[in-house]
Design goal:
Aminopeptidase, 5 strands, Diverse_Substrate_AcTransf, five-stranded mixed beta sheet, alpha+beta, 4 helices
Length: 148
């Protein structure tokens, strides 16, 4: 399987938008955000001030993406990355494509002086939990996640 993992680029806008809708609506079955909001998010990430997006490409077609947001941890008293998204199309799950996207996020975080990379996944997403453990991640036990 020949593929490349790279930073998202302006030319990826339409393909990345489609892939993000597959993730948001198709995979997680959330409401479809307006295209303007998706484009604004992609543009924000292209600027690499608040985060960065990586894409996996095979034969000129995007087959996956990962998103890191930049923030801080009071507990670490340092900057951290939050891997908000790691998504690959169904045929590429549990393949080198998925692993390389994850490793690219780790490498970026380490190479840019972040104290740690953190992320969450749905409690129902058992496949992702198995993948993260295979990649050497430790599951947190001390915190309960909330949102509003």
């Amino acid at each position: 399987m020949s593929f490349v993992v790279r930073n998202a680029a302006p030319d990826d806008l339409n393909s990345l938008t489609e892939l993000m809708y597959e993730y948001i609506v198709g995979f997680y079955q959330n409401p479809r955000p307006p295209v303007e909001k998706i484009h604004n998010l992609i543009q924000t990430l292209l600027d690499q001030q608040n985060g960065i997006q990586f894409v996996a490409e095979q034969d000129g077609k995007l087959v996956g993406f990962a998103t890191l947001f930049f923030t801080f941890s009071t507990m670490k008293a340092d900057k951290i990355t939050v891997m908000n998204d790691l998504f690959v199309m169904e045929p590429f799950r549990d393949t080198e494509v998925e692993s390389q996207l994850f490793l690219e996020c780790q490498k970026y975080s380490q190479n840019h002086g972040y104290a740690r990379m953190t992320w969450i996944t749905s409690t129902e997403n058992k496949r992702a939990q198995i993948f993260f453990k295979k990649m050497g991640a430790a599951q947190g036990k001390d915190w309960v996640h909330f949102s509003s």
